[in-house]
Amino acid sequence: MTAAQVVGTDPDAERIRFLQRRAKRINRREAVAGYLFISPWIVGFLVFTLGAMLYSLVISFTHYNLATGLARPAGMENYADLLNDPNVALSLGNTLFYAVLAVPLEIVFALMLAMLLNRVGRGSGFFRTIFYLPKMTPAVATASVFLLLLNGNSGAINDALGFFGIQGPQWLIDPAWVKPSIVLMTLWGVSGTMVIFLAALKNVPRDLYEVAELDGAGPIRRFFSITVPMISPTILFNVIVLTIAALQVFDQAYLLFWRDQGSSAPEASLFYGVYLFQEAFRTFNFGFAAAMAWLLFLIILLITLIQTRVSKRFVYYEAENS
Amino acid sequence: MALTDSSTGQPSLAAQATGVEIAGTTPLRRRSVRPLPLIGRIVLWLVLIGFALLFLYPFAWLLAASLKPRGDVFDNSLLPHTILLSNYAEVWKQLPLVSWLLNSVAIAVIAAGLVTISSSLVAFGFAYFRFPGRKVLFGVVLATMMLPGAVTLVPQYLIWKDLGLVGTWVPLFGMNLFGSAFYIFLQRQFLLGLPRELFEAARIDGASYLGLFRRIVVPLSLPSFIIIFLFEFQASWNNLQGALIYLNGGGPSGFTVPLGISYAMTTFSPTNGGHGDYQYVMVAALLVTLPMLILFAFAQRYFIEGIATQGRKG
């Protein structure tokens, strides 16, 4: 006699089996309902993310004609053009240079502001509000104001520098100062990063500082031995997010330099995002633009992976508590 | 993954929604370090005031310049020698600013409304239900947050073009029907902060799954709905690239705010054979910034809370 038959004859076991079957049915119902609730995201992901990426991969191997909607096979031509077109290397170089300049400055400046706010106690809300206002300002407004503030001859920034006896540069014309100009605008709006740092700083247990102080650690030592390790996951997060943003810089560069197709812009302001946009939507070179997009994707993926890998040695994670 | 809000020192929005803590109060927080001596506090305040002035300066300059006659814009004085309120009337006449503002408000409200609803439906699916593949799929949600938008720019345009929707508003909010990764994450965190018994009790009372959403999730999620709505409203308000791609073909009256200001920058710039009437650009820039500043005045804590949540994605 098998076990099932034994169970089958026992009324209690019968009940248990019935409940189990019902639980299973409910579980299946719950699972189906779960899938239904997340189905909008699944559809969006399949069409507009995964589908779009595959679509772009296909297009990158064609010469796409916008008027006819026909795609002529191009083999590797678009990818060969990535190497042949000097503007690709130029814009990539500009973009990487900008990222290397902007990201560390943003991190340091945002962390500094956050630490000041964290120390000030009463009043921190007031200053936080003021620091946050630029973040609320639309990029177009920021760009139009900084276009004038950064004017090399009579802009307010060079006026201020002149007050200290410094001859300010031609910010928006001199190729060497194009990227610092954009960095300056970005730093003005750094408060998002600052708020994230502030939240992390508030989470550092005070006892650590007290113990360190008893051990005679000065403020600099405390910063590098306690603050930095304790907020290192947040630093990594901000570095990754800001790097991805910097590699896609578009709005400011477009508004300051490439908005007006009639005028010439300094080569130093041709960023990858701008060139990709122009190739796609000014010259309608979709195949090439798609290849550029894939190159950018791989570069960003690579950089993010390197950042994550390298950071393993420096980032300190507390034991997860849930 | 940590629950909503142990780390800002503020009461979590979920806690507020369930009435565990009273909205707007911050629990007594232990200062992270021993208070500074007086001299240190003075220096700290001076440094902060200095930075505050630097941050505010562009706003003051913008306001002043918007009131100046053309020749005075670059005198960089924060107090205009001659105040020309007529600049505002002139801009009103020369630019379809009202259309831009109305277009932007309409698109932003639709975009924000759609993404709030869709993201919270999806988030509820991830937060409450148990189904195979849930962890993996949510991992994919998180991964798409890191996906650079430039990568899908071209194919998305082609999809909208194949649907015959280029030139309409639809591409500017159509994707919001499908939820957005960061908002799904945010709303899921919020829902995980609600006690599960709440849902179980309603189930026992015979509520359907959709009923749970309508009767529990929606009323309790007001704080996170506001965050999502505000963030998407702002993102839509700032969306220059989308407008350049999908609306640039039409006339200026169909523009949104970012496209309009970009157009004004070109129209009034001296390099384009215009007159270099920057005071008009400043008026327009000021008028499109103002709604966002007003929004911030009323909803500051939601913006701050939303941003702080971004740092907690780990």
What does this structure look like?
The complex is a heterodimer of chains A (322) and B (314). Chain A is an all-alpha fold and 322 residues long. Chain A folds into two domains: 3-59; 78-311, MetI-like (MetI-like fold). Chain A has helices spanning 3-9, 11-59, 77-84, 86-120, 124-136, 139-149, 156-163, 175-188, 191-202, 206-214, 219-230, 232-247, 251-258, 272-281, 286-311, and strands spanning 62-65, 70-73. In chain A, strands 1-2 form a two-stranded antiparallel ribbon. The two termini of chain A are 47 Å apart. Chain B folds into two domains: 33-84, no CATH class; 93-310, MetI-like (MetI-like fold, Orthogonal Bundle), CATH 1.10.3720. In chain B, α2 crosses α14 and α4 (97-128) crosses α8 (181-192). The longest helix of chain B is centred in the C-terminal third of the chain and has 33 residues, at 278-310. Residues 1-12 and 14-29 of chain B have low confidence and may be disordered. Chains A and B meet through α2, α4, α5, α6 and α9 of A and α2, α4, α5, α6 and α12 of B.
Largest sheet, strands/sense/barrel of chain B? none
Quote the distance from N terminus to C terminus of chain A: 47 Å
CATH architecture of the largest domain in chain B: Orthogonal Bundle
SS-based class of chain A: mainly alpha
Rg over C-alpha atoms of chain A, rounded to the nearest angstrom: 28 Å
Strand content of chain A: under 5%
Number of helices of chain B: 14
- Share of helix of chain A, binned: over 70%
Question: What can be said about this structure in brief?
Answer:
The complex is a heterodimer of chains A (322) and B (314). By secondary structure, chain A is mainly alpha-helical.
Keywords:
heterodimer; A: 322 residues; mainly alpha; MetI-like fold; two-stranded antiparallel sheet; 2 strands; 2% strand; flat; B: 314 residues; 2 domains; disordered N terminus
